[in-house]
Specification:
heterodimer; A: 383 residues; mainly alpha; Formate dehydrogenase/DMSO reductase fold; 14 helices; globular; B: alpha+beta; two-stranded antiparallel sheet; 28% helix
Chain lengths: 383, 265
């Protein structure tokens, strides 16, 4: 089937080459990071994880969200999702690939990464995260390829794909739960030490992933002859509306506990992120933008008249995506490090090389997505 | 010299056998580690499990607290080839000074004895009995010896910095750049390895000296005798004696990490 990615319109190749150029630029800066070390990033001894790990955390959510199309289709026989489950699975493959790459570019000694398998450490959540992410990547590769291959031949998907599909459902939940456990089990980082971290991660994942899928479905419909149809897009809109509502509710819960308990250490990070602490508050504008976008998204998505209008739906979906990206792909990880264990404040902002490497990784993800969607669309156009 | 034909391996067979051997050795070793976990590591490092528990008492009533006194820090950093990096973000520190309210932030509310607001407290790795850094390390590059010292294998570390996120004491440093480029080549202590960029490091209670029956170099360097090191399992040791008679506090004991650096204030 892969040959279908090798022929395409001029527009297709332009997109591929733009993405390749971005990958190349990112790779150039990565070579610099390899030779100079992580000192070329904005991280330091106080904020020791930054943009890379934030992107990783956010993208695990996008990957997990495939379950939001797989579950209704395979467990509830919700036929409308039949056409787009493959789009969800391929989005998951692209997102997990980016996750793995973001972890890789964050390593101080990337060539030693196989030490994770050479010296497996079941006590480490990072070990389990590696295991579940790779498992999830393989599951979606096998399922996606098998179902698309069967569709192309006009036959039913192979019998072995069924159990894999059922396994992939709890597995999707597991990848984001374990990713939340990376943070939620650490003593002394009060922003992260919350029992609802995994629940928050899943809520924001099931909002941001399907929101992106809505936009992707619209793009596919616009530029190809494959139309996912109005019904699945509307159904996704409802899912996003519910998930985003729960996500915002969870954020409110964090504020209640931190501020009503009055325990200073529990509110310090939130204070820093939203209001500024001791004169430092460089992330506050981003956090308030995130909140503003969340309010806009909820208004557009909860209200049926705007949700049914595809323009407003697209606006709402984009607002959800960027709101959760700011909250999780920036504030959550960095905020956990501020203030430091000494309760001093070191602020963080990513450097140009750091952003370029991140852009390169995103470009690889979108390149994978473009190729996989191209193959899918070619198969569908033939049918 | 002529070999018996029977002993010769074709190239393909050699590769296959080598791979098989490698897999079985690697696989069984890994399996052993998963099943027996820390016991294997402990077996190779443990000498007297219950009888030795190294700990330190920092007697802040004796510490000069003068900004110009850096005997313990200079001795440690010289001995362990710790580079002096001026950029605060990239600093590497094994033992240093922090103001009392930063070392003990949960005690900063209310009014404290006046002298506590003055110059800094000596801070270093607490060599916890229940170390979160060891719990989170995905490669066991950091581990706890039976005598309580939290060790660091800088050749195994992949530089993921999970231990830095997990340490509630800010005791760990990452090599954001190549430290060898900053070290003065003539001043390098040849008895202790230098590090590569991209790995985490921290105080190791001078394990290499303790194992030879010596004291940690910071303890030896302090003219005020403010740093006291010894075996907490031995009731007759200097640390046990001090703690039996004086009131001492530890940093963030409420986190359950069971730090083994005590402060007499």
């Amino acid at each position: 089937m892969f040959e279908k990615a090798l022929s395409g319109s001029r527009r297709y190749w332009t997109l591929v080459f733009i993405l390749l150029a971005l990958v190349g630029a990112g790779f150039f800066f990565y070579l610099r990071q390899l030779s100079d070390g992580l000192s070329i990033t904005g991280m330091g001894r106080d904020v020791s994880w930054g943009f890379y790990i934030s992107q990783f955390t956010f993208l695990v959510g996008v990957a997990a969200s495939a379950v939001m199309v797989v579950l209704p289709y395979y467990l509830h026989d919700f036929r409308a999702f039949g056409k787009i489950t493959i789009l969800g699975e391929f989005l998951a493959i692209s997102a997990v690939s980016m996750c793995v790459l973001f972890i890789f570019v964050d390593m101080g000694q990337p060539f030693r990464i196989f030490n994770v398998f050479l010296h497996p450490s079941p006590n480490s959540m990072m070990f389990w995260d590696t295991v579940v992410l790779i498992g999830y990547l393989l599951l979606n590769l096998f399922i996606g390829w098998a179902t698309l291959g069967a569709e192309r031949k006009g036959v039913a998907p192979p019998a072995w794909s069924r159990p894999l599909i059922y396994i992939s459902i709890p597995w999707a939940v597991s990848i984001h739960t374990v990713t939340a456990f990376l943070y939620a089990g650490i003593p002394g980082r009060h922003l992260w030490l919350t029992a609802i971290m995994a629940a928050r991660f899943l809520a924001s994942a099931f909002a941001s992933g399907p929101a992106l899928l809505i936009l992707l479905c619209m793009i596919v419909r616009r530029y190809t002859r494959f139309d996912p149809g109005r019904e699945p897009i509307q159904a996704l809109g409802k899912i996003v509306a519910y998930a985003m509502t729960i996500n915002v509710f969870f954020i409110a819960l964090e504020f209640f506990t931190a501020y009503y308990s009055g325990i200073p250490s529990h509110s310090h990070s939130l204070e820093y992120l939203f209001f500024g602490l001791e004169g430092h508050g460089s992330l506050a504008p981003f956090m308030w933008t995130s909140m503003g976008l969340a309010a806009l998204a909820l208004t557009l998505l909860i209200n049926p008249s705007t949700r049914h209008n595809e323009r407003w739906l697209a606006t709402g979906a984009a607002a959800v995506f960027f709101s959760t990206w700011l909250d999780k792909g920036l504030g959550l990880v960095v905020g956990g490090f501020i203030p430091s264990p000494f309760e001093s404040i070191t602020e963080y902002s990513p450097t140009v090389p750091e952003l370029m490497i991140s852009l390169g990784v995103w470009a690889i993800g979108f390149l994978i997505l473009t190729l996989l969607y191209k193959i899918t669309v070619a198969v569908r156009e033939e049918a | 010299m002529k070999y018996d034909k029977n002993y010769e391996l074709s190239r393909r067979e050699f590769i296959r056998k080598a791979a098989l051997l490698g897999l079985s050795v690697g696989g069984s070793k890994t399996l052993m580690e998963v099943v027996f976990g820390d016991d294997i590591l402990a077996a190779s490092t443990d000498e007297n499990p219950a009888t030795v528990r190294w700990a330190m008492v920092v007697d802040m009533t004796k510490c000069s607290r003068r900004e110009d006194c850096s005997d313990c820090m200079a001795a440690c950093h010289r001995t362990h080839n710790v580079p002096a990096i001026s950029n605060r973000r990239h600093e590497i520190k094994w033992i240093w000074r922090e103001p009392f309210v930063n070392a003990f932030p949960e005690l900063k509310e209310g009014r404290l004895r006046k002298d506590l607001y003055g110059a800094g407290f000596i801070v270093l790795c607490n060599h916890c009995d229940n170390p979160p850094c060891v719990r989170v390390c995905p490669t066991r590059a950091t581990w706890r010896r039976q005598d309580g010292i939290v060790m660091m294998d800088m050749h195994r570390c992949i530089g993921c910095r999970y231990c830095m996120a997990a340490c509630p004491y800010g005791s760990r440093s990452f090599n954001w750049m190549d430290p060898r480029k900053i070290l003065d080549e003539k001043a390098i202590n040849q008895d202790y390895p230098t590090r590569t960029k991209g790995v985490v490091e921290k105080c190791d209670f001078c394990a290499e000296r303790i194992d030879r029956g010596m004291l940690p170099v910071c303890v030896e360097a302090c003219k005020e005798k403010a740093l006291v090191f010894g075996n907490l399992s031995d009731a007759g040791s200097p640390v046990s004696g001090l703690l039996a008679g004086r009131f001492a506090i530890r940093r963030k004991p409420e986190l359950g990490t069971r730090p083994e650096v005590y402060y007499i204030v």
